[in-house]
């Protein structure tokens, strides 16, 4: 799990909007600091770290928006999303290639190993193209322009909605986490429908947003809240792997339906490879789904959400 850098000197009893600017600037700085790591393609974790930092920044921007007079400029939000998407394209290829390489080692039949090898060659070509796009997106001049745009937008946070009283940073965190917990709990019913692909995907996103919110306000609630963020991250991880498997299953199924058949244009090895991979990803999906369901069942039994709420409310 990639952890966010702790923001020091935070006054949780102070005006949330005033601190929001400092938090957002620090989060943006963390994104910029990871540029070198993201461009070091010898270690795929660099792209992952920058992608997560960008996600955290966008999540924090979303969390603080209700306190602002108006939403951050559309261009800022659009360019941050484009950056996240470009990083995500490379990361998705990295994860897919790692998964295929592991399965290639597990395969016992040489024709299937060779078939996976041909698929890996195509995916490496796609990743090379995605990496070229990432290099363009992370050009110094482009990031400098984005930093200027972002800094200008954050500098206008002094404007506020007309509220009856000042909302403290701590209070803002409580509200954000309460909303996120409610969303996750409502979507949790999706786990009782193993093949509700869209519902499970939405639950994963809700878990991700709640995790980032808990991490963002950990400075106010102390170390006792950290295990909750870790458990939410575990749920996010299980559901993320389910989603990855769903993507593979859909793609392989489509490939088989549209032509990877014994009577089709592709060879026998490609057909058997696709069938074998489909079977393996179905098994892997079942394993990850069971892990998510087990964790959810534990949360229901031990009042996970209520215990987390108690820590947030009493801190």
Description of the molecule:
This protein is mainly alpha-helical. The chain has 2 domains: 14-163, CHAD domain, CATH 1.40.20; 168-315, Alpha solenoid (CHAD domain). It is built from 12 helices and no strands. The protein has helices at 16-33, 35-39, 45-64, 74-106, 110-137, 140-154, 169-187, 197-216, 218-221, 226-258, 268-301, 304-314. Helix 1 (16-33) crosses helix 7, helix 3 runs antiparallel to helix 4 and helix 7 runs antiparallel to helix 8 (197-216). The radius of gyration is 22 Å and the shape is globular. Residues 260-265 have low confidence and may be disordered.
CATH class of the largest domain: Mainly Alpha
Annotated CATH homologous superfamily of the largest domain = CHAD domain
| Low-confidence blocks of residues | 260-265
Average residue-wise pLDDT: 89
The counted number of beta strands is: 0
What is the distance, rounded to the nearest whole angstrom, between the alpha carbons of the first and last residues?
25 Å
Q: What quaternary form is this?
A: single chain
Which structural class best describes the helix and strand composition?
A: mainly alpha
Provide the domain count: 2
The succession of helices and strands, N to C, reads HHHHHHHHHHHH
Based on the structure given, which CATH architecture of the largest domain is correct?
A: Alpha solenoid
Taking all Cα atoms into account, the compactness measure Rg is 22 Å
Number of helices: 12
Range of strand content: under 5%
**What is the CATH topology of the largest domain?**
CHAD domain
Sheet with the most strands? none
Coarse shape: globular
- Proportion in helices: over 70%
